[in-house]
Design brief:
The complex is a heterodimer of chains A (465) and B (428).
Chain A: H1 2-19, H2 29-43, H3 72-77, H4 83-108, H5 110-136, H6 142-172, H7 176-183, H8 185-202, H9 209-239, H10 242-265, H11 279-300, H12 304-307, E1 311-313, E2 318-320, E3 332-335, H13 338-346, E4 352-355, H14 357-386, H15 402-423, H16 429-436, H17 441-457
Antiparallel strand pairs in A: 1-2, 3-4
Chain B: E1 3-9, E2 15-22, H1 27-39, E3 47-52, H2 53-57, H3 75-96, H4 98-123, H5 130-155, H6 157-162, H7 164-171, H8 173-190, H9 197-227, H10 230-253, E4 257-259, E5 262-266, H11 267-289, H12 292-295, E6 298-299, E7 308-309, H13 323-336, H14 338-351, H15 367-389, H16 394-401, H17 406-422
Antiparallel strand pairs in B: 1-2, 1-3, 4-5, 6-7
Helix pairs in contact in B: 4-9, 5-8, 5-9, 9-15, 10-11, 10-13, 10-15, 11-13, 14-15
Classes of the chains: A mainly alpha (465), B mainly alpha (428).
Catalytic activity (chain A): a 1,2-diacyl-sn-glycero-3-phosphate + CTP + H(+) = a CDP-1,2-diacyl-sn-glycerol + diphosphate
GO molecular function, one term (chain A): phosphatidate cytidylyltransferase activity
Biased composition (Polar residues) (chain A): 18-39
């Protein structure tokens, strides 16, 4: 009934331009037409909109969808299967391929991870911006495409520069040429941004003001979502590969487990936005994520490849990932709470358990990921629903675009970064050393002597004879 | 007299379906409208609201109409009076000290945010959904909590550590702000309505965009103020001077238009305004340099309740003021790039077909009209300070060493020793 109402109301709106002439007296015809044309003018922004677009936006024609596509090789192999099964097989194959790719990249080390993050980020930005172009139908203005890409490059330069300055600053301070780029890095990227801003203002075209401003806002929001969060991913990687791998796998596990539990036990729907998600899937997925996170962190804590932060060591003269595991990654004894102690000792079991402290952190990380994961997915599906598109793109057959796979990961990376900076003490002797190396040589000596005096006073350091 | 009839369908939350123009507001026309609608089967479902056209166009009375200010015909005199009032008001604020300045920065940010988002939503014809406007303010509060937490934890840590509640709020500000933000997103997703889903995403996107544009600049202004009040006063003064001089020169000898966006701006005004800004700006900074109240960075000392300022000696020395070189760079930026912020705002007003951002200041329009160029300038000042002026301080690092455990302190000592010896700064 409401659908009919909407159709009729939009029909009524569109026929009003024809009908108004029948109402009213003849004398005020001309003034009425004036008013009518004024009203009409105020609603169109350019010649495109002359015939009105009052209903909702439907972009299903302009954004390609990847869920039902499959490469031709697979198509031939799976010709005889019914459609539904074929989709599942394609999806399964590509999930497996993505997992293998992920493992290869981890094996490749931090540099491979940084490059992959950059590529993923650019592709996600492209997909979001494509939607923006289709919404505002701005294909006619070539300037604008280049401007969005210019802003992407500028913000990437700024963010990657920030992380490079922090971690490679020590190396770079040695060579004079790179030192200029490092010291003035913020200033240079700000000038580049200003240049982009000035170009934007100069490129405003009379009839397209509203569209250009809307797309400007769209670009900035897309940059905020994509670029800031990939910068935080890189920062997490520098803390230790484990801070990247464990959250990512938690989100993947939560996705898969929620689906499995929903498939077998799903009954009560969770949210109006995604009718296919159920409470049973949500809770089941959450519990299994916690268990999985526990096991995975136990396994990973034992390898220094994953655990060590990436730092510069003076002795070796380069960046290393070998270190002594920090206090978070050494087994410590935890005493179990009182009420369990008595129970356990009667059975002759020990009353304290030896855990890696990281496993407790992984507990909180997994609880958050089982909440963030689904809601990030709801946000993305709400967004797709608003514009009536099925997928963000068609890069991955069976799954859709890259943004479809990575929508929850971005928010999780932000959370991990916030968690690390709030609860896990950043400062280690090496980190402070990198900060000291920024001081002038006289200041460094001053610091050294002040420190020496203080340590000797407190008898921590025995004065040399 | 012509009438405009607005037709609403109540279920779809007051979304305006169409408007029909009638020749007159008499009963006959109303009957005709009803007849027309019943033809389409909409008669019973529709609320017809007859509105006088003059009623539509009449703006609500501005608060200034109650002031006993004589209404001069000329706009220039009105603008000048308001300008002077504003000037004295801000002089008073600066005189009162840093906390009041920060409070005003926050208030200005919120008012500008409010003005712009009102315009954007009205122009895009997004219906006024109360819950989503509340959500907008919720996000603004969370973002400002995050920014102020960052600023306080960096500069005012002694003050922060005194009271336990504030200590918790500020030390964990990142985590708490993230949790509140995510809670807001969850509420957004739960309360989303399928029919208005695109408009609701629009509101969310505008909130985020305005937070980047305005909220972030407010944080930068706060950071600038902590480096010394002059880093706020001088850029603001330069932009105002540039505005006034460009206007004067434009009126005196303006001929060639500068940019199609703002037909009132002329090339002569731009160039001569720029030159006079350079001259007068240098003079202004020379005057400001003499006041230690303005030049000293803000630090908090535990003994007294008020903040005290201490002298920076590497920026200001008695005979020569290196600060004047910096002020030259600022004047250059203020005269060349900052006007583009003004052009952008004019373009925005044109795009959304409004004359002013609001009506808070008589003669000038809304608050955003006055502060549009300032935002870009504040960002430039912040980046400039960070790059050229700030140096790492020995004291800060020294204090950080004592937060390590004792083993780590010893370890740090040995590492530092080794590093200094390796680089030849010290003999062992």
């Amino acid at each position: 009934m409401s659908e009919e109402l909407r159709r009729r109301s939009s029909g009524a709106a569109e026929s009003e331009t024809g009908e108004t002439n029948k109402l009213g007296t003849a004398e005020s015809n001309s003034s009425r037409e004036n008013l009518q044309s004024n009203l009409r003018d105020s609603e169109i922004d350019s010649e495109d909109d002359k015939f009105g677009r009052k209903g909702s936006i439907d972009l299903s024609g302009s954004i390609p969808s990847g869920t039902d596509k499959a490469p031709s090789v697979l198509d031939q192999m799976l010709q005889d299967l019914p459609d539904k099964w074929r989709n599942w097989v394609v999806r399964g194959i590509f999930s497996f391929l993505m997992l293998i790719f992920f493992l290869v990249v981890i094996y490749g080390g931090p540099l491979a991870l940084m490059i992959t993050t950059l590529v993923v980020q650019v592709k996600c930005f492209q997909e979001i911006i494509n939607i923006g172009y289709s919404v505002y139908r701005i294909h006619g203005l070539p300037w604008f495409r280049s401007l969005s890409w210019y802003f992407l490059i500028t913000s990437n330069y700024f963010f990657y520069g920030e992380s490079l300055v922090e971690y490679f600053g020590v190396v770079i301070n040695r060579t004079d040429f790179l030192r200029v780029l490092v010291t003035y890095h913020r200033f240079i990227s700000f000038c580049l941004y200003c240049g982009g801003f000035v170009l934007f203002v100069l490129s405003l075209v009379k009839k397209y003001y509203m569209k250009q401003f809307s797309l400007f806002a769209w670009t900035h929001v897309a940059l905020l979502i994509v670029v800031t969060q990939s910068y935080l991913i890189i920062k997490n990687i520098f803390e230790g590969l484990i801070w990247f791998i464990v959250p990512v796998s938690m989100i993947i596990c939560n996705d898969i487990m929620a689906y499995v539990f929903g498939f077998f036990f799903g009954k009560t729907p969770l949210i109006k936005l995604s009718p296919k998600k159920t409470w049973e899937g949500f809770i089941g997925g959450g519990v299994s994520t916690v268990v999985f996170g526990f096991i995975m962190s136990y396994v990973m804590c034992q390898y220094s490849y994953f655990v060590c932060p990436i730092e510069y060591s003076e002795t070796l003269g380069r960046m290393t990932m070998e270190c002594e595991p920090g206090p978070l990654f050494r087994p410590t004894n935890y005493k179990l709470p009182e009420f369990m102690c008595g129970f356990l000792t009667t059975f002759g079991l020990p009353d304290s358990v030896s855990l890696y402290p990281f496993m407790l952190h992984s507990l909180s990380l997994s609880i958050f990921s089982s909440v963030i994961g689904p809601f990030g997915g709801f946000f993305a599906s709400g967004f797709k629903r608003a514009f009536k598109i099925k997928d963000f793109g068609d890069v991955i057959p069976g799954h859709g675009g890259i943004m479809d796979r990575f929508d929850c990961q971005f928010l999780m990376a932000t959370f991990v970064n916030v968690y690390i900076s709030s609860f896990i003490k950043w400062d280690s002797p090496q980190k402070l050393l990198t900060q000291v190396l920024y001081l002038k040589p006289e200041q460094q000596l001053q610091l050294f002597h002040m420190l020496k005096e203080n340590l000797e006073n407190r008898n921590i350091l025995t004065p040399e004879v | 007299m012509e009438c405009v009839v607005f037709v609403y369908i109540p279920n779809v939350y007051n979304v305006k379906v169409c408007h029909i123009v009638l020749a007159g507001c008499n009963k006959l026309s109303r009957i005709c409208v009803c007849a027309k609608l019943s033809k389409h089967g909409l008669r019973d479902k529709v609320v017809i609201q007859l509105m006088d056209e003059t009623q539509e166009k009449r703006k609500p009375k501005s608060w200034t109409s109650w002031l006993p200010v004589p209404r001069f015909k000329s706009n220039v005199i009105r603008r000048t009076i308001t300008g002077f009032t504003l000037f004295f008001y801000f002089y008073f604020v600066v005189y009162c000290g840093v906390p009041l300045i920060l409070l005003h920065a926050l208030a200005i940010e919120i008012i500008c945010h409010n003005e712009i988002i009102n315009i954007a939503l009205k122009a895009k014809k997004i219906p006024n959904i109360p819950f989503f406007r509340t959500l907008n303010w919720y996000f603004v509060i969370v973002a400002n909590y995050f920014f102020f937490g960052e600023a306080f934890s960096e500069y005012l840590d002694i003050f922060v550590k005194k009271y336990y509640a504030i200590n918790v709020l500020i030390s964990y500000h990142k985590f708490l702000a993230f949790c509140f933000y995510f809670l807001g997103i969850i509420c957004f997703l739960v309360k989303i309505r399928k029919k208005l889903i695109r408009q609701e995403f629009s509101v969310l996107a505008w909130t985020h965009f305005l937070l980047i544009i305005i909220g972030l600049q407010c944080y930068m202004i706060v950071q600038n103020v902590f480096e010394g009040i002059i880093w706020l006063i001088l850029p603001v003064g330069l932009v105002i001077l540039n505005d006034i001089f460009a206007y004067i020169f434009g009126k005196l000898c303006g001929r060639t238009p500068l940019i199609s966006l703002s037909p009132n701006k002329t090339l002569e005004g731009f160039v001569f305004g720029g030159i006079s800004t350079l001259l007068f700006g240098t003079l202004l900074s020379y005057i400001f340099c003499h006041a230690p109240y303005l030049t000293c960075p803000v630090r908090f000392f535990g003994k007294s309740k008020r903040h005290s300022n201490e002298h920076i000696s590497n920026i200001i020395s008695i005979k020569v003021y290196p600060f004047l070189y910096h002020s030259l760079a600022f004047s250059l930026f203020a005269s060349v790039i900052a006007p583009f912020g003004g052009f952008c705002a004019s373009g925005f007003k044109r795009a959304f077909k409004v004359k002013d951002f609001g009506d808070l200041i008589p003669g000038h329009g809304g608050l955003t009209d006055r502060f549009d160029c300032q935002f870009l300038m504040a960002t430039f000042v912040n980046v400039y300070i960070w790059t050229f002026i700030r140096t790492a301080e020995v004291d800060k690092i020294y204090q950080k060493v004592f937060q390590l455990s004792i083993d780590n302190q010893l370890k740090f000592y040995h590492l530092l020793n080794e590093s200094l010896c390796v680089r030849g700064l010290m003999k062992n």
